[in-house]
């Protein structure tokens, strides 16, 4: 569970409180200029006149995970499961076919998820905790794409039909998350076609678009939008304090993210 509240201090910084804040998320919050505190006693509170910096304490609810974390391929598989928990009840081959991940990636990631108690014979477990772990790994890896190119549009990007998924600020704005930023992220197997579809160009405008060459993971959104977990993580990856604050808040507001709390 995340709680975002304002801090009554000379700095006026926001305090992010949670039962457990992973190292990756904590690092991003500090870079973004946000204070953080969790139930394990980890904290970063910079009040201009006072600095509290406590790291490395484990939450009472933290689970011991295998030494090898989520790889980029594992991020893709875990995202598919977060977006479509029914995949847990399928065979490895069906999981692979429906998610677009290779059989070997599915097998390795499912093993990792079971070791971390995020998956058992009944299906997905501890969904909200997995979202935190996945987000931290995503931020650490800097995303899940194989290659990216930053181009520009002459108007705000909106979803279109085809083999595309829209993410980042444009998708968050479409979902009504209170984002006003002009940037967008497009996931596609065919960057050249995306460039033609949205008439993207190299000349700089006020609408930057990051085109990422990637297989399209399962999505819990319609209208050509990426999965809510991916949109949220892409917002945090931008490093803007306001985007990060909103991204943390929507975990308890967006229906796709909120439903993960039911998997306990």
Describe this structure in words.
- The model is unreliable at 1-10 and 60-68 (pLDDT under 50).
- The strands form three sheets. This protein has a five-stranded mixed beta sheet, covered by helices on one side. Strands 8-11-10-9 form a four-stranded mixed beta sheet.
- The chain is globular and about 50 Å long.
- The chain is built from ten helices and eleven strands.
- It has helices spanning 23-31, 72-83, 92-99, 103-115, 127-141, 168-174, 191-197, 228-237, 241-249, 255-258; strands at 2-6, 14-18, 35-38, 43-46, 51-54, 119-120, 123-124, 147-153, 164-167, 184-188, 207-213.
- Helix content is 36%, strand content 19%.
- By secondary structure, it is of the alpha+beta class.
- The longest helix has 15 residues, at 127-141.
In helices, the fraction of residues equals: 25-40%
Structural class: alpha+beta
The total beta strand count reads 11
Mean pLDDT: 84
SSE topology:
Layout: E1 2-6, E2 14-18, H1 23-31, E3 35-38, E4 43-46, E5 51-54, H2 72-83, H3 92-99, H4 103-115, E6 119-120, E7 123-124, H5 127-141, E8 147-153, E9 164-167, H6 168-174, E10 184-188, H7 191-197, E11 207-213, H8 228-237, H9 241-249, H10 255-258
Parallel strand pairs: 2-3, 10-11
Antiparallel strand pairs: 1-2, 3-4, 4-5, 6-7, 8-11, 9-10
Helix pairs in contact: 1-5, 2-4, 2-5, 3-4, 5-8, 6-8, 8-9
Explain briefly what this protein structure is.
The chain is α+β, with helices and mostly antiparallel strands and 264 residues long. It has helices at residues 23-31, 72-83, 92-99, 103-115, 127-141, 168-174, 191-197, 228-237, 241-249, 255-258; strands at 2-6, 14-18, 35-38, 43-46, 51-54, 119-120, 123-124, 147-153, 164-167, 184-188, 207-213. A 5-stranded mixed β-sheet has the order 1-2-3-4-5, covered by helices on one side. A 4-stranded mixed β-sheet has the order 8-11-10-9. The protein has a two-stranded antiparallel sheet with strand order 6-7.
């Amino acid at each position: 569970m995340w709680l975002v509240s304002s801090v009554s201090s000379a700095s006026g910084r926001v305090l992010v409180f949670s039962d457990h804040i992973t190292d990756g998320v904590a690092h991003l919050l500090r870079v973004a200029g946000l204070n953080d505190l969790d139930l394990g006693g980890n904290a970063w509170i910079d009040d201009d006149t006072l600095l509290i910096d406590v790291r490395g304490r484990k939450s009472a609810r933290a689970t011991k995970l295998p030494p090898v974390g989520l790889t980029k391929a594992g991020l893709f598989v875990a995202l598919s499961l977060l977006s479509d928990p029914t995949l847990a009840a399928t065979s490895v081959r069906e999981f692979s076919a429906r998610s677009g991940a290779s059989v070997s990636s599915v097998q390795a990631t499912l093993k990792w998820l079971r070791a971390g108690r995020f998956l058992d014979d009944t299906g997905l477990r501890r969904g909200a905790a997995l979202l935190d772990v996945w987000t931290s790994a995503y931020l650490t890896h800097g995303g899940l794409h194989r290659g990216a190119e930053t181009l520009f549009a002459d108007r705000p990007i909106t979803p279109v039909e085809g083999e595309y998924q829209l993410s980042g600020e444009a998708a968050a704005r479409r979902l009504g998350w209170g984002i006003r930023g002009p940037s967008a992220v497009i996931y596609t197997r065919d960057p050249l076609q995306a460039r033609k579809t949205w008439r993207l160009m190299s000349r700089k405008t006020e609408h930057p678009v990051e085109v990422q060459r990637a297989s399209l993971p399962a999505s819990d959104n319609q209208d050509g939008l990426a999965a809510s977990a991916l949109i949220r993580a892409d917002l945090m990856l931008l490093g803007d304090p306001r985007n990060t604050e909103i991204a943390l808040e929507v975990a308890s507001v967006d229906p796709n993210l909120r439903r993960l709390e039911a998997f306990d």
